[in-house]
Amino acid sequence: MTSTVTLNRHGDIALLCIDNPPVNALSPAVVDGLIAAVDAFEADRDYKALLLYGEGRTFVAGGDITAFDLPDFSARPLNRMLNRLESLDRPVVASLHGTVLGGGLELALACHWRVAHPKTQFGFPEVKLGILPGSLGTQRLPRVVGIEMALDLISSGRPVDAVTAAKAGVVDELREESPLEAGLAFVEALLARGAGPRRISERNVPADSVPADFFDRALAQARRAKPFHPSARAIVLAVQASLRPFAEGEAEEAKLFEQLRTSPESKAMRHLFFAERQAARIPGLPKDVELRPVRSVGVLGAGTMGGGIAMNFANAGIPTTLVDTTQEALDRGLGIIRRNYEATAAKGRMTTEQVEQRMGLIHGAIVDGALADCDLVIEAVFENMDLKKKVCARLGALCRPGAIIATNTSTLDVDVLAEATGRPADVVGMHFFSPANVMRLLEVVRGAKTAPEVLATVMQLARTIRKVAVVSGVCYGFIGNRMAEVYMREAEFLMMEGASPAQIDGAVEALGMAMGPCRMLDMAGIDVGAKTVIEYGKTGGLPPDDSYRAVVRRMFELGRFGQKTGAGYYRYDGRKPVADPETARIAKELAAQHGIAQRSDIGAEEIVERLMYPLINEGARILEEGIAYRPGDIDMVWTAGYGFPDHQGGPIYLADTIGLPVIAERLAHYAKARGNAFGYWTVSPLLASLAAQNKRLSDWTPA
Ligand code: 3H9
């Protein structure tokens, strides 16, 4: 055995305990321990049964993801052990609790019987890492729950609760006791009734349990819905192989797993898995910092953003007060929230009681005094410095001592707003992304005077409301919008040079971006984008270049606010964007006005380089200025908030895939080709230095 796996005797029952904190992942040491335990059990004929359970908060949450990159990694030892475990001639029982995921569920399915705590979650989340269950999950699960449910669970990665798992036959009994007590009671009952081994691999999956064209349709659907994720197709093929004899299916799964594990897509997605967890860590923050309790939240501003923010807290069961200045604005805001919940209920993802319960947690008010007792108040008024300063001053006076005051600004100087409250230590930026009830990202902006416990409290709260929180320092646009600004800048220059919005969007959507820049801003609102640029101009932040973001400003003047007014960069047929000759005319007119030559030879490669390389370059600046703590934080911002494709790992990870010398060379090329009067193409010192040393941005840490 190893220190992570122990085998102890309890009368004639062998107790196999896995103890590998924090989540009992199946590390190489755990696998070795399991092999040794099976050997010992096999050799000792006094044992009548083997009981497996996990120490700590969970049974086993999966294979050890950190081991997948080891040069000698192989799933074979684990898989061989699982088959040996299943073939044992005395009953093998798994007692489950916590999160039984991936390799953990595969281990459980290799056992003959399963007992679980009612709160246990089950699932195969491998698809989120760009792989498939590689320890016979694609072969054993269909033999228990059938093809259709197995394919659904493995393809979606969605966990199911213990009751669902029990109904589907994954679990034999639910018990409330501790894993050890529940397991012992189950095994003793099993032995008392003389039950023996029961092996899933010996079952067959009837080929006629699904229509003849089931797998062809599933493959077509995987290609259509997930064109950039080879795992989606591989999962269909692996589940299809479960119709064949077990050993053949096993070989097929092993082949597909190995292809995926070594694929660039999976490596990128694994990078994001760890980046997400790293982002939650705040360097230099004392570990014992005492969090402020947040039992109630106030949101000032009942517009789309404020309403979406309020929903997050109601969803987490936190009473929320939503305030606006007029009854009409408040009613409109509450009405939108209700319609959102009702739409979710109509899709069957919520009950009508839940709709009422959540609405019951959101209290509307038209006097801001209603915010006085809230533990956290978030202002979500229009993005205008004067207005926000006024609001912050009011909140500073109004909120109870110790309350946290957050601003939802997307670009403005949080330090200025913090000073306006008169209590800057209580202030933090909480930049939600629209729609705030849906988007996973939350940028948490740390002001110069933000108290450590305020920052830590908000990071913890982000976990409670299931956001991916990334800390940013104070600068224009923080991490995300600052990078988006250079991306939009080039999109508009390309438009003025003659590229159409569809060409621009198409080029980056072919990379896997959820939405190109033109569709994105049309959806967010051209007015919102233009006002931000105008506000930034007032602070003296814009380059002295009249052609800078000239398109968005002209669109704004013309009332073309995007999807909501039926026209922006595109014209809208309902929600469908269609090419609008008027946009080409406006771009041409602006090009003439600013002396920009139009060309007909702009290709997809140029578009991608001109959108992505300045964005990466800005990311490097954000790192060297200490605005982001680490490279992975930038990748999280862009994948969780801007639709950057997860299979590319985020912009910094992508930069390293391309190679920094290539990026530096292309930036220099565009500096020459396009001119560099305003420094748009100046390579950041960090990027230049790492490129010269042929190093990676992802490995960079501040000195
Ligand atoms: C698999 O099983 C493949 C098999 O089919 C084939 C194998 C041959 N490995 O998320 P948290 C770490 S693939 C290594 O903050 P929570 C995590 O990095 C796997 N490390 O906690 C973090 O470390 P740190 C399929 C892992 O309470 C710490 O544990 N399984 C693993 O919010 C705490 O994590 C999955 O994909 C792992 N498998 O959530 C499940 N899992 O403290 C992935 C976690 O140093 N895990 N860590 O930052 C999860 O979804 C969540 O961690 C879980 C707990 C729900 C379990």
UniProtKB/TrEMBL annotation:
Q: Where is the 3-hydroxyacyl-CoA dehydrogenase C-terminal domain?
A: 477-572, 607-693
Q: Which residues form the 3-hydroxyacyl-CoA dehydrogenase NAD binding domain?
A: 297-472
Reaction catalysed by this enzyme: a (3S)-3-hydroxyacyl-CoA + NAD(+) = a 3-oxoacyl-CoA + NADH + H(+)
Q: What is its main location?
A: other
Point out the signal peptide segment.
none
Recorded superkingdom:
Bacteria
Give TM regions.
none
Q: Which InterPro entries match?
A: 3-OHacyl-CoA_DH_NAD-bd, 3HC_DH_C, 6-PGluconate_DH-like_C_sf, ClpP/crotonase-like_dom_sf, Enoyl-CoA_hydra/iso, NAD(P)-bd_dom_sf
Keyword Electron transport applies? no
Record's keyword annotation contains ATP-binding: no
Keywords of this protein's UniProt record, alphabetized? Answer: Fatty acid metabolism, Isomerase, Lipid degradation, Lipid metabolism, Lyase, Multifunctional enzyme, NAD, Oxidoreductase, Peroxisome
Q: Where in the cell is it found?
A: Peroxisome
**What pathway is it annotated to?**
Lipid metabolism; fatty acid beta-oxidation
**Protein name according to UniProt:** 3-hydroxyacyl-CoA dehydrogenase NAD-binding domain-containing protein
Species of provenance:
Variovorax ureilyticus
